[in-house]
Amino acid sequence: MLLGSHHFQPPLSGAKLPANLEMHALPKRCPVDYCGPAKSASDGTMPSPTQSRRNVRIDSEKYLIRTIGPDDASDRWASWMSDPEAMHMLNLRARTWKKADILDYMKKFDQRSSLLLGIFDKQSGAHIGIFTVDINQVRSQFLVNLMIGEPQYRNKHVTSSIAMPFREYFFETLGLNMAMASVLARNAPMIHYLKKNGWKLDQTVKHSTKSNADGAMLDVCLFSLSRDAWRRWKKEHLARSNNKN
């Protein structure tokens, strides 16, 4: 499942999410007109050089989300990024990724304000996907992107399983006030998912992103989820779950 930032290049495309490609957000960097500008360590927008790298560990019942390291780079991960459908969904230029490219990609993340996290199956230990999160401490915002790369885990409710503990960590443990995401306007399944899970559509930016496939200009939807909205959604979600039991 893909929920994308519109500059990795963009996120998802296609009104119908292919059955064998579940992606839920992938980045590169937080857009300055939406997440807030990156400035310098002195104003708190970027991390201080002395700020410790975050060692993130988020547990759900079936999956573990943790900080990625060089030992996690693999040819298998590279194959996710080389998948033609992934390239289309993320508006990536056609290319074949190698393990060395994954290692270079890791270097873009300082693991302080710019996080690269892996998603792992607890039972098998398999690496099945990644999160990227860009944090703006000054604005107390974070831009989130997710990719479920392993085909057998797509459309298997992985996103639903990890959503609660993931949001709990960033909203409650880190105390951030706002989550942000961007989705191609034609990606109806992802837009439906976000709205169903408490996200608010703030703006649709017309002709925002150029397609790497045919050069067409694509519309992008900008979404946000406040900590208060998350708490309301969590309360309602837990109430529904209790009623079912």
Question: What do these coordinates show?
Answer:
The protein has 245 residues and is α+β, with helices and mostly antiparallel strands. It has a single domain, classed as Gcn5-related N-acetyltransferase (GNAT) (Aminopeptidase, 3-Layer(aba) Sandwich). Strands 1, 2, 3, 4, 5, 6, 7, 8 and 9 form a nine-stranded mixed beta sheet that branches. The chain contains six helices and nine strands; from the N terminus they run βββαααβββαβαββα. The longest helix is centred in the C-terminal third of the chain and has 18 residues, at 227-244. The chain is 27% helix and 26% strand.
Keywords:
single chain, 245 residues, alpha+beta, Aminopeptidase, nine-stranded mixed beta sheet
**Low-pLDDT stretches:** 5-46
Order of helices and strands: EEEHHHEEEHEHEEH
Distance from first to last alpha carbon: 28 Å
The CATH topology annotation reads as: Aminopeptidase
Please give the CATH class: Alpha Beta
Radius of gyration: 17 Å
Number of helices: 6
Would you summarize the structure shown here?
27% of the residues lie in helices and 26% in strands. Residues 5-46 have low confidence and may be disordered. The protein has helices at residues 75-82, 84-90, 99-106, 158-173, 188-196, 227-244, and strands at 2-3, 57-59, 63-67, 114-121, 127-136, 141-148, 178-184, 200-210, 217-226.
In terms of topology, how is this protein built?
Blueprint: E1 2-3, E2 57-59, E3 63-67, H1 75-82, H2 84-90, H3 99-106, E4 114-121, E5 127-136, E6 141-148, H4 158-173, E7 178-184, H5 188-196, E8 200-210, E9 217-226, H6 227-244
Parallel strand pairs: 6-7
Antiparallel strand pairs: 1-6, 2-3, 3-4, 4-5, 5-6, 7-9, 8-9
